[in-house]
Design goal:
The chain has 391 residues and is an alpha+beta fold. It contains 10 helices and 12 strands. The strands form 3 sheets. A 5-stranded antiparallel beta sheet has the order 2-1-5-4-3. The protein starts with a helix and ends in a 20-residue tail after the last strand.
Length: 391
C-alpha cells in the first residue's frame, strides 16, 4: 500500500513537475516569441525605412519635405544637386519663387506648377508643392533643362533652315518671273536668266540634300561593314579631281597600306567628300591639298590639309555647328550650305571617332578624323534580352 502510495506520490510529483515545466516552457516560448516579434518588427521597420530611402533616392525628381514650421525633415540626394547640400529650412531656399510656392502650400493657398530657373546651378526645374494632412509640405522638383535646351536648339534649327530655304526659293521665283517677261521683251537675255535660275535651283537642292543627310545621320548610323578607308579616300579624290584642277590646286594623296575600318561606306564617303570640297572651296589657285590615310592598332586616321584661307581662332569651335559659317557671303557665293562640317561631325561620332582642326589664318587648315580600329566596337554594346536558350 505504501509502495503503491509512494508510486502514486511519485507519479503525482512527476505529473506536477511535467505540469510546471510545461507552463514554464510555454511562458518561455511566449517570451521568446514576443521578443522575436519585437525584433522582427524592428527589422521590418528598418527594412521598410531603407526600402523607402532606396526608392526616394533613386527618383530622378528632387524631393524635400518641410515641417509645418518650415524645417527640412527629409530630402533626397537629387535635391542636394539642385538646391545645394546644406538646405535645412525654408529660409535656406535661394529661389524666391520656390519659397513662395512652399509657403502658399503650407497656408493652403494655390499651388501652381512652376517652371523656375535656379540661379546658382543654371538648371531649369518644374516645381510642385503639396500640403499633406499633418501640415507638412512636400516640394517636388523635376529637372527639365535638357528638354528645354533641346527645344531651343530645334526652334533655332527650324528658323535657320527656313531662312536658308527661303533665300533660293525667293530668287527662283523672281528669276522665273523675269525669264517670262524676257521671253517676249528681251529674248537675248533669256540664256543668262536661265543660267541664274539653274544656279539657284542647284543651291536649293544642295541645302535640301544636306538637310536630308543630316536628318538621316541624326537618327543613327547606316549599314556597317568592313570598308577600306584608303580606297574610299582615293575614289573621292579621283571624283573631285576635275574640280581641284579647275581651282588650280595640286592634290597630294598619301595612302600606303590598306586601312580597313568597320563602318558605313556611304557615310564615310560623305565625310571625305565634305572635307575635300571645303579644302578646294577655301583655297586659292596655286595651293596644295594633302590627304593622308594611316593606321596603327589604336586608330585609323585621315588628315586633309590645305594651304587656304585658314579659320580664325574664335570660330574654330563653332564651325561644326549647323549653318555656322565664318564668312557668310563667301560661303553662299561658292555654294556652301553651312552644313558640311556638321555632317562630318555626325558621321565621325556615329562611328565612335572624333574630328579636330588646326588652322593658321592665311596659311591653311588641317582637319584630322580619327576612327577606332576595325575590331573595336565603335559603340558600347547594346544589351539584348536573349531569353532562355533551349537546351
Ligand atoms: P560651308 O558649306 O559653308 O562650307 P561647312 O559646314 O562645311 O559649311 O563649313 C563651315 C565653315 O567653316 C565654312 O563656312 C568656312 O567658313 C569654314 N571652313 C570649313 N572648312 C574650311 C577650310 N578648309 N578652310 C577654311 N575655312 C573652312
Amino acid at each position: 500500500m505504501f509502495a503503491l502510495g509512494l508510486g502514486i506520490g511519485a507519479l503525482a510529483a512527476s505529473l506536477v513537475f511535467v505540469g510546471v515545466s510545461g507552463r514554464l516552457s510555454r511562458s518561455l516560448r511566449r517570451l521568446r516569441d514576443a521578443h522575436q516579434d519585437a525584433a522582427g518588427r524592428a527589422d521590418a521597420a528598418e527594412a521598410d525605412r531603407s526600402a523607402r530611402e532606396a526608392i526616394l533616392s533613386s527618383l530622378e525628381d528632387a524631393i524635400v519635405l518641410f515641417s509645418p514650421q518650415g524645417r527640412v525633415v527629409y530630402r533626397n540626394a537629387v535635391s542636394s544637386e539642385l538646391l545645394g547640400g546644406g538646405l535645412d529650412g525654408l529660409a535656406g531656399l535661394a529661389s524666391t519663387a520656390l519659397r513662395r510656392l512652399v509657403a502658399s502650400a503650407s497656408d493652403g493657398g494655390p499651388v501652381p506648377l512652376l517652371e523656375v530657373l535656379l540661379g546658382p546651378t543654371g538648371r531649369i526645374v518644374q516645381a510642385s508643392a503639396s500640403r499633406i494632412p499633418d501640415g507638412h509640405v512636400l516640394l517636388v522638383l523635376r529637372d527639365v533643362t535638357g528638354a528645354r535646351v533641346g527645344e531651343a536648339v530645334r526652334r533655332d534649327f527650324v528658323a535657320n533652315a527656313s531662312h536658308e530655304l527661303k533665300t533660293p526659293v525667293a530668287s527662283i521665283q523672281a528669276l522665273a518671273e523675269t525669264l517670262l517677261s524676257a521671253a517676249s521683251a528681251d529674248p537675248a537675255a533669256v540664256p543668262r536668266f536661265a543660267e541664274q535660275l539653274e544656279r539657284e535651283s542647284v543651291r536649293l537642292s544642295r541645302v535640301v540634300g544636306d538637310l536630308l543627310d543630316l536628318s538621316r545621320l541624326e537618327s543613327g548610323a547606316g549599314e556597317r561593314e568592313r570598308i577600306r578607308l584608303d580606297r574610299l579616300v582615293e575614289e573621292e579624290a579621283e571624283r573631285l579631281h576635275p574640280r581641284s584642277e579647275e581651282a588650280g590646286l595640286t592634290v597630294v594623296l598619301q595612302t600606303k597600306d590598306p586601312v580597313p575600318i568597320h563602318g558605313s561606306a556611304r557615310d564615310v564617303r560623305l565625310l571625305i567628300r565634305n572635307l575635300m570640297e571645303n579644302a578646294i572651296q577655301y583655297s586659292r589657285p596655286g595651293g596644295t591639298i594633302e590627304i593622308a590615310v594611316r593606321a596603327d592598332d589604336r586608330e585609323a586616321v585621315v588628315t586633309v590639309a590645305d594651304t587656304g584661307v585658314g579659320i580664325p581662332t574664335r570660330d574654330r569651335d563653332r564651325i561644326f555647328e549647323r549653318f555656322y559659317r565664318v564668312d557668310r557671303a563667301r560661303s553662299r557665293e561658292t555654294g556652301g550650305t553651312g552644313l558640311g562640317l556638321s555632317i562630318v561631325k555626325h558621321v565621325v561620332e556615329n562611328h565612335g571617332g572624333n574630328v579636330t582642326v588646326e588652322s593658321e589664318l592665311g596659311r591653311g587648315s588641317t582637319f584630322t578624323v580619327r576612327f577606332p580600329p576595325r575590331d573595336a566596337p565603335s559603340r558600347p554594346m547594346e544589351e539584348k534580352d536573349i531569353g532562355i536558350l533551349p537546351r
